[in-house]
Amino acid sequence: MPKVKRSRKPPPDGWELIEPTLDELDQKMREGSFSNLQTSVSQKANKSIVYHGRLIKRIRYIFDLFYKRKAISRELYEYCIKEGYADKNLIAKWKKQGYENLCCLRCIQTRDTNFGTNCICRVPKGKLEVGRIIECTHCGCRGCSG
């Protein structure tokens, strides 16, 4: 995992309130990604999915603080984006209707699929066969369309 690079500029007010939670989420990501380096290919893929899920939790935490709970300032929100704690493009999609639970940007890119469509996890569960378990090949999501 690449280390988050901090700028020389001091963080804005309110940073000391969210820093422990962000550090805890970073620590959980490190534990999951470096726990056993000699693993099989399927286990490595599973670890990358777990890492992706924990990364999404960190971005979702910042999104909820700013847009849902209005607990942090715009200056602190922009600082988190600039420092790499959150993904600006994913948050922009979460603000749009129908993309509130989007797991990653690769799932909506049509160039990554064979027929120029979205990922299977974007298909509503009501439109799939009963009992069929779906899983995204990119991130391991089991249905983020709702």
| SS-based class | mainly alpha
Please provide the ordered H/E string of secondary-structure elements. Answer: HHHH
The mean pLDDT is 83
Proportion of beta-strand residues = under 5%
Task: Identify low-pLDDT runs.
Answer: none
Our Rg estimate from Cα atoms comes to 17 Å
Assign an overall shape: elongated
Number of domains: 2
**Count the strands?**
0
Helix content: 40-55%
Biggest sheet character: none
End-to-end distance: 30 Å
- Give the count of helical stretches: 4
Keywords:
elongated, 2 domains, 146 residues, mainly alpha
Structure in words:
It contains four helices and no strands. It has 146 residues and is mainly alpha-helical. The mean pLDDT is 83. Helix 1 (15-34) packs antiparallel against helix 2 (41-68). Belongs to the BUD31 (G10) family.
How would you sum up this structure in a few lines?
This protein is mainly alpha-helical and 146 residues long. The protein has helices spanning 15-34, 41-68, 74-82, 88-94. Helices cover 44% and strands 0% of the residues.
